[in-house]
Amino acid sequence: MKKTIIKYRYVLTILAVIILYSGCAGIPARQGSSIPVSDTPLYYGSGESTTQSGALNSAKLQAVIKAVQDVLGTAPAAANREKLEKEVYGKVNVNALVHNDSVSILHKSEDNGTYTVTLGVRINLPAVASVLRSKQIYGGLIQPQGGTVVLSDQEPPSPPPASDTSRNVVSTQKQENEALPKNVTPKQASLINSIINNLTYMVYYDEKTVSNPFIAKTAVGMANKYLAENGFEYVDLDQVEQIKKDQADAYEEETGNSVSMIQWIAGKLNADIYIEVSVDTNARTKGGKYYGSASVSLKNFDASTGAGRGTAFYQTVPPAMSTVSTEAAVNNAVASATYNAIKKAVQQAEVYTRKDLVQGIKYSLVMQNTSDSKIMRAFMKGVERKVKSIRRVSTSPEETKYEVRLIGRIEDLEDIVYNVADSISGLEGVSLVYQRGNSITFDTGL
Hints:
Helices cover 44% and strands 26% of the residues. The protein has 14 helices and 16 strands. The strands form four sheets. Strands 6, 7, 8, 9, 10 and 11 form a six-stranded mixed β-sheet that branches. The N and C termini lie far apart (112 Å).
């Protein structure tokens, strides 16, 4: 009997140890950190909006979202993403999930009517846990049987960079802060900066993926508004619509549908970057007020090649509100989301274009009537001294094809061909035959 009691006590002790360690394992803790855990952890968030109060609430919500991800764990949070967005983030008053008396503003700014706020706030974890359980969202520390939920304070974020109020300031700082490779000469660096600062943008939407053209055009209009206000060259929406209306037959004849109509129009209107807009919206009515949310995705493409030049995404959190109609609320949400997304899209386009320019843009150079191999060898050596690189792809008496990499535009390559040809006996009669995008063809006159 005595042995049985001892054995029973031993089993209880082991169970107690297991329960203790399993409970501790559920609390996220930073390795080597002495920060205490509590049910009011300090979290940080940043938000943007067209109003200061909206930016404040957006920042609070971001802090709450981070806390929810921590209490649920990565996998459960990802599995319940859609439900969280619809049933929690989109419906619950964020002020009920935080302790407003603990708000500490770390940074705030205003740029062209857009307010940005970064703050710290203590999360009301019992309220967060109650909401998640009421929506039957479980995982990590949130279990159906209840229990205390605690987290450790987040570490403060790094101070944000000073807000720039003009494109010129941004461009200047990029030029000064981004180290160019040593093999880029000052003249080439100047050319790169000149090209970057003078990019022309065309914003439109792909009709195949847009269910509401009116909403899509609202997004295009807001993107163009940002470009105009910040001194960027851009193609007006009416110009795009006119080309689509008047030259549909020419598009099919010239391209055979081998490129998208948007890319073809961008080339016709001399745009450097074209941006495709995708918009997804939701609307609801509550308490006599109308709410609209929007997710806007912008994809950048090189107008000559169709190559990707980065993407940008923005979602309105919290939803935009209107006292007039759901349509008005949705329009407000689309306008706000697009205005914020286009900033990121332009930054991405500049970064990707800069990288391409540093490496040298790839061009296809075709020379027709190349029967004299010695002359063509001299021509290739002459071009080689003026570009990043040149590679012969194929050759025959009828034509020779080259792949050329150059820090410059197609017009610069055209000038190089003429200059080199003028220095070689027999090539004085070189003339341009054809050019489209990054492909250019000449007749040697031989």
